[in-house]
Design a protein that fits this description.
heterodimer, A: alpha+beta, OB fold (Dihydrolipoamide Acetyltransferase, E2P), 6-stranded mixed beta sheet, 6 strands, 29% helix, B: mainly alpha, 12 helices
Chain lengths: 138, 292
């Protein structure tokens, strides 16, 4: 789906009430094809779980020139002129930290499994009754 | 994806579920009066898969005839969404709390997966730049070659580590071949849809099981937990190798299929490579079981 920011904002206007300068989506800049005049940016939108192709005709070349793969971008909706803007900022460190934070519950879960009984991991795979395994040494 | 294409996508998922189930829990009921080769060809699973394919083709034909094949559907469409949610819940429990779909593997299966990733690496370059792909693939490849020739048997804990490595490399394959991207954006033909459905199920089941197995391996830090892995590993990783002739035949069949697909352009090359790996793992699982 290739849409411009205005269409994107209009799409969101149907489902949500905008506040001033509300961030309507955040994504990671993944691919950029730019000959200085045309191209598109793909945003893996975290909010609507869709991949959106934003038509780059809407953005200034100076803003686009600052972008690289993996940079975080966000789409901001501005109330006074009822237009959406693409905000680009350098947030790699924050993003990485966010990535690490996602692993904390998994890490805690692993520790819990190690401390408590890990039997449930084998549920359905082996017989968990106390019958000794004939292959095991006494 | 239109409704008729979605029918083929579901067909791929169902057939793959049948094949994986047959790998993990052999379905009996062969026609005894037939020649052994014909018994294999007309096995209950193959007959069920063919019936499903015919039903899907008929259903797709009816959908087109009735003019219901109109607008494109995606995961946001209620029909697609609800079917995928039901399937997702089933697959989650099948992989995380049961033993329904995980095929038993051996060193030869591991070798085929590593060869496929290596071939993709040599042809396309490293598509997963954040991973040191070459050592990641070469080390298990060399170890499995060594184990194949030396006929050595690994102790269960080492087997578990090796199996975990195999699962990780298997998970790299769709990223390396660009399959993940294709799942999201491809416009499918019926064959591509069926193949993609099957691949999706195979990868999701193995992906979920990777997470589960990772925790099992973590729990091995405590000695008292090691008794479980001793019992589990024979179920997942067998020491029985397929005879070299059959292994080479499977390998050659994969290479021929990939080359034929390059000429005939039936499905995208990356999809063909991943499909061959998936098929080879399941065929070798079957053959090693038949050897018993």
């Amino acid at each position: 789906m290739i849409i411009g920011l205005d269409e994107y904002a209009a799409h969101y206007q149907k489902v949500t009430q905008f506040e001033k300068n509300m961030i309507i989506s955040t994504g990671i800049w993944e691919y950029f094809h730019n000959d200085g005049k045309s191209g598109w940016v793909k945003i893996q939108d975290e909010r609507c779980l869709n991949t959106l192709y934003l038509d780059t005709r809407y953005y200034s070349a100076a803003a686009l020139a600052t972008l690289e793969d993996g940079k975080e971008v966000r789409v901001r909706y501005s109330v006074p002129d009822c237009r959406a803007y693409l905000d680009v900022y350098y947030a790699e460190f924050r993003y990485n930290l966010k990535g690490l934070q996602e692993f904390i519950p998994l890490f805690l879960f692993c520790v819990m499994v190690l401390i408590l009984k890990p039997d449930f991991l084998y549920l359905g795979l082996i017989d968990l009754s106390d019958t000794p395994d004939p292959a095991e040494k006494p | 994806m239109t409704l008729s294409i979605f029918v083929f996508f579901l067909l791929g998922i169902l057939i793959e579920a049948l094949l994986l189930f047959d790998c993990a829990h052999p379905i009996n009921g062969y026609i005894q009066s037939l020649h052994p080769l014909l018994q294999r060809i007309f096995s209950p699973v193959n007959l069920a898969a063919s019936t499903l394919a015919l039903l899907a083709a008929g259903l797709a034909f009816l959908i087109r005839l009735a003019g219901l094949d109109g607008p494109s559907m995606d995961i946001g469409t209620s029909l697609v969404g609800s079917v995928l949610v039901v399937l997702g819940v089933f697959v989650f429990f099948a992989a995380m709390a049961a033993d329904l779909f995980i095929p038993v593997i051996n060193e030869q299966s591991i070798l085929i997966v590593q060869c496929a990733i290596l071939a993709s690496f040599l042809l396309e370059g490293n598509q997963v730049p954040w991973l040191p792909l070459l050592p990641l693939v070469l080390i298990p490849g060399i170890i499995s070659l060594f184990l194949l020739f030396s006929q050595k048997k690994l102790p269960p804990i080492l087997k578990a580590l090796f199996y975990l490595w195999y699962l990780f490399t298997l998970m790299i394959l769709p990223f390396q071949t660009g399959q993940v991207e294709a799942f999201l954006h491809a416009t499918y033909t019926p064959i591509q849809a069926a193949v993609s459905g099957g691949l999706l199920l195979f990868m999701v089941i193995h992906g979920l099981f990777t997470a589960r197995f990772f925790l099992m391996v973590c729990s091995l830090i405590r000695p008292r937990n090691r008794k479980f892995i001793n019992r589990l590993m024979p179920r997942l990783f067998t020491d029985d190798q397929v005879p070299p002739k059959s292994f080479l035949l499977t390998f050659a069949a994969c290479v021929v299929a990939i080359l034929l697909n390059q000429v005939l352009h039936i499905i995208p090359p990356s999809l063909a490579l991943t499909l061959c790996v998936m098929s080879a793992v399941q065929i070798l699982s079957h053959l090693s079981r038949m050897k018993k």
